[in-house]
Amino acid sequence: MREIKFRAWDKDDLSMHNVENLGIMGNTSIYGRKSNGSIERRWVHSDKLDIMQCVGKPDKNGKDIYEKDIVRQFADCDEHGNDLYFMYLIHWNNEEMRFEGIEITNKGIVDYSETYCGRDLEDLEVIGNMYENPELIRGVNMNGEKYIATANKIASDYYGLVEGDQYIVEQRGDGNNWVHDLHGNYITASRTDAFDEYQSLKRE
Question: Which domain holds residue 97?
Answer without folding.
Answer: 59-140
